[in-house]
Write a structure and sequence with these properties.
heterodimer; A: 7-stranded mixed sheet; 18 helices; globular; B: 375 residues; two-stranded antiparallel sheet
């Protein structure tokens, strides 16, 4: 198992794309099993037994798991019973827990990742490339994934593993390669390396910690949510198949007698000015729906949302954004950016009615461009200019642009979903600083993150969401990621007390 | 940065040029295969451009194409495929002709009123497809095609002599419009002809199209929806309202596309009114990359092929079939679709590479003197 670590934009993804035949090298050679090869397409790579699980999943939402898996490799096992049997077999062998007949759109991110891994194994891969596989998982799931990977390894498969999380890399990899700005800057053996040394290799600086200083929580409520409930779309009323659209792992339970699943069930909370409320939870337990209900993409089936004392339950998305709700979406490619538009047009996205982007009815390109230059500078977005398309930036730089854009409109309430996902350590610290600074000014933040250290370090209050309900709360000052993790799987509820002698949430898991 | 602008311009030109070259080469192959001179027809057609009466014909025809193609392009910009431009245009032209034949206001009221009738009729017809899509999720591709067929029947019914039809010879028309609704053209002499007055309407619409799309909030929302529906929704665009509005505007513009001919020359809607304009416009919008300037060039090219090709039949000493132009038009559409996608992907990849290269260079510079990469 070989790990590849490096800052964002260091060239990890590019290297992997070349290995997988998606991009051609300008110079140099690739050797597979002692034989020099030249890949012209992913098909060539697959033929050599190289399979890739991308950071952004390549799945067709409206097809079932089975259909997605056989897509493009129909010749292997056909598209019917043989293929289904094969999928079941692989799924059971590695404990992937994949159900072949569920629609992809009904699955959470973690389940989708398992489908991606299964897809690669289905094609007979002997070398797996995993691009940031743990970014979306909770500690328990990460452990499960690593168990799977170790099992793969013991059967003679090779795994190439890309990650920012140095702790994980050290615990699982047999060998580590660090790259920076497109070249290899070092290799390391995990047994002889500390996270600090690795981090210094990566960025030449120390690891930041997300801990906030003194509390800035005031008693002025900014967002009050009462009894918010949202039903699953595609419930029984639409004549869907009897099987509820659950996320393979945990959400088997149907909470209502009439068979309508509640993706959000009686959610009640208040966030005050200057408060960061963290929501922990396994992906697919209602976080996406909560975010969408708050920003206005989903209608509440019952319950109310109030913002600065005003009832906003029926407001449209645009009005909410104009009134000061900022939004850092969980999937920046789907919701945060126009990939083929230049950066300055992406600066306008979401704030098209506001200055400096618009003057009344008209767009103000000059104003937007100027402000984009400011964001690029202040948020250290690495780009040669503001006219390049968003697609040509690396993931971390795209995220910095989004954070800069949302913070530029002085939001009073910020919905931050995975604000530092896929962002390198340096930029992570910068984003945290920006959130902290705004919090001092009285910003209320709803923070949703799969990175438990980030949650614990940034939040003033912590809630755990499980199966659409807020089942537990915790004090971020004392709780550990492991304790939080057990509540996330539904094993604990109520107020979580820290039991052991405090082993403070150190850099350990990073 | 200037160089990325230049690059974008280069990419914008590369697609159409590639497509045209490919289409010409393929047409020449067809000519060779049928034992003809592969170059002579082009020379003959280009010769035609020198005649001023042909120039007038080309400009007039192009104005119709241009407006219709703008209607199609508007839909394309937000991933709506309005195949119904043809039906919207014919129905609107007929309604305008009927109103123009029965209402007589002073000219300064009559002409705007007629334009409004065309606009509203087109918008109404497209709006049906819009309502169906928004409320019932019916694909606009299917509904607009069907509305084309329905428009044909509606026109057939309304032009019965029992209704608004007037028999002129053996041609069914809607009667001659009142003269206050005629839009005078630019008369270039008896043997040259007249440029339609409403050619200027086409120009204005082109400018308006650019302004609305690139300089207004509405246009930004529309383009955002076309580029990424999910991102647009998250940014606060009401997708349904957007679909409906875009459909109305597209239909309204389509409704105007027959009016230069109707108000400028024919003054009546007859069975001889050109059909298929809306379908041709799809190809033109594609070739013009939904860009107002590009569409203008594409419309002129199409009009040129239309109006210069009849001369091939009368060429001496060797005559050619004028259908060569039709073959070429078909091949252009084909080549356009392929070359644009190829150029788009190539461009994206190239830019990613160059951004990477520039950043690496900047980083190398940074090692010596600490400086912001941005700027």
């Amino acid at each position: 198992m070989h790990a590849l670590v490096g800052e964002n934009g260091a060239g990890k993804s590019t290297l992997m794309k070349i290995l997988y035949g998606m991009q051609k090298p300008d110079e140099g050679t690739i050797t597979v099993a002692g034989e020099q090869v030249a890949f012209h397409s992913p098909a060539d790579a697959i033929a050599r037994g190289i399979g890739m699980v991308h950071q952004h999943f390549m799945l067709a939402d409206n097809l079932t798991v089975l259909e997605n898996v056989v897509l493009g490799s129909e010749k292997l096992y056909g598209i019917g019973a043989t293929a289904r049997k094969k999928i079941k077999e692989i799924s059971d062998r590695y404990g992937l827990n994949v159900r072949p007949d569920v629609l992809i759109e009904d699955l959470g991110v973690a389940d989708r990742q398992r489908v991606e891994i299964l897809k690669v194994l289905f094609r007979g891969a002997t070398t797996l490339i995993l691009d940031e596989p743990t970014a979306v998982l909770v500690p328990q799931e990460v452990d499960a994934l690593f168990d799977n990977l170790r099992e793969l390894k013991s059967e003679g498969l090779s795994v190439i593993f890309i990650s920012h999380k140095l702790g994980e890399v050290l615990s699982v990899a047999d060998e580590i390669t660090v790259i920076r700005r497109g070249t290899t800057v070092g290799t390391a053996v995990p047994a002889e390396t500390t996270p600090r040394q690795l981090a210094e290799l990566m960025v030449g600086s120390e690891l930041p910690t997300p801990e906030t200083a003194e509390s800035t929580v005031t008693d002025k409520p900014v967002v009050e949510v009462k009894g918010l409930t949202v039903y699953a779309s595609g419930g029984a009323s639409l004549g869907e198949l009897a099987e509820p659209a659950g996320t393979g792992l945990l959400t088997e339970e149907v909470s209502e007698a009439d068979g309508v699943r509640r993706v959000l069930d009686d959610i009640t909370f208040t966030i005050h000015a200057g408060e960061v409320m963290g929501v922990a939870g396994v992906e697919g337990n209602g976080q996406s729906e909560l975010i969408e209900a708050l920003i206005g993409l989903k209608n509440a089936d019952s319950g109310t949302i109030a913002f600065l004392g005003e009832e906003i339950t029926s407001w449209a998305t645009r009005k909410r954004r104009e009134k000061g709700i900022g939004y850092i979406p969980e999937d920046r490619h789907r919701q945060g950016l126009l990939l083929e538009a230049p950066l300055w047009e992406n600066r306008i996205l979401g704030h098209v009615t506001e200055r400096p982007n618009a003057k009344g009815f008209w767009i103000d390109p000059k104003g937007a461009q100027e402000d984009t230059r400011r964001i690029v500078k202040d948020y250290d977005v690495r780009t040669p200019g503001i006219d390049v398309t968003a697609a040509s930036l690396s993931g971390g730089n795209q995220q910095k642009l989004i954070v800069g854009r949302e913070m530029s409109h002085a939001p009073k309430f910020l919905i931050a979903a995975h604000p530092t996902r896929g962002v390198d350590v340096g930029a992570q610290a910068a984003i945290w600083d920006h959130i902290r600074a705004a919090r001092r000014e009285g910003l209320a933040v709803l923070l949703i993150s799969a990175d438990l250290d980030e949650l614990i370090g940034l939040s003033d209050t912590l809630r755990v969401i499980y199966n659409g309900r807020l089942v537990a709360d915790a004090d971020p000052a004392t709780i550990t990621p492991e304790e939080l993790g057990s509540a996330m799987t539904g094993a604990a509820s109520g107020h979580l007390e820290h039991v052991d002698e405090a082993a403070a949430p150190e850099d350990e898991a990073r | 940065m200037k160089k990325f602008d230049k690059e974008r311009a280069l990419l914008a030109v590369a697609g159409p040029v590639l497509a045209l070259v490919a289409a010409i080469v393929l047409t020449s192959i067809v000519l060779i295969a049928s034992g003809k001179n592969p170059f002579e027809p082009y020379r003959l057609m280009l010769e035609q451009v020198g005649f001023s009466d042909i120039q007038v014909l080309i400009i007039n025809q192009a104005s119709l194409y241009y407006i219709a193609a703008l209607a199609v392009a508007l839909g394309f910009r937000m991933n709506l495929f309005n195949i119904g431009v043809d039906g919207q245009y014919r129905l609107a032209a007929m309604m305008t002709a009927v109103v123009g034949a029965h209402v007589a206001l002073p000219s300064f009221l009559q002409v705007p009123m007629l334009l409004l009738v065309g606009l509203l009729t087109g918008a109404f017809w497209a709006g049906i497809a819009g309502v169906l899509k928004v409320t019932r999720g019916v694909s606009e591709v299917v509904s607009t095609i069907m509305l084309n067929a329905i428009a044909t029947s509606v026109i057939g019914y309304l032009t019965l002599t029992d209704n608004f039809g007037v028999l002129v010879g053996d041609n069914i028309t809607t009667g001659v419009m009142k003269e206050s609704g005629w839009v005078p053209g630019i008369n270039l002499g008896a043997d040259v002809g007249e440029i339609y007055g409403l050619v200027f309407l086409a120009v204005l619409l082109g400018i308006g199209y650019w302004l609305v799309l690139n300089r207004t909030r509405f246009g930004f929302d529309l383009r955002a929806t076309g580029a990424s529906e999910t991102a647009a929704a998250a940014s606060g665009v009401d997708a349904k309202k957007m679909v409906f509005t875009a459909m109305l505007i597209s239909g309204g513009v389509a409704g105007l596309s027959g009016l230069p001919l109707l108000l400028g020359d024919s003054h009546t809607y007859a069975l001889t009114f050109p059909a298929g304009l809306g379908f041709t416009a799809i190809g033109i919008a594609l070739l013009g990359r939904n860009n107002p300037g590009g569409i203008a060039l594409a419309a002129l090219l199409w009009a040129f092929l239309d109006k210069a090709s009849p001369a091939l039949d009368y060429a001496t000493p060797v005559a050619y079939e004028k259908e060569i132009a039709t073959i070429m038009q078909g091949l252009i559409v084909f080549a356009v679709v392929i070359s644009y996608e190829a150029v788009r992907q190539w461009g994206l990849r190239r830019q990613q590479k160059r951004v990477g290269a520039e950043l690496a260079a900047a980083a190398a510079g940074n090692n010596n003197h600490k400086k912001e990469v941005a700027a």
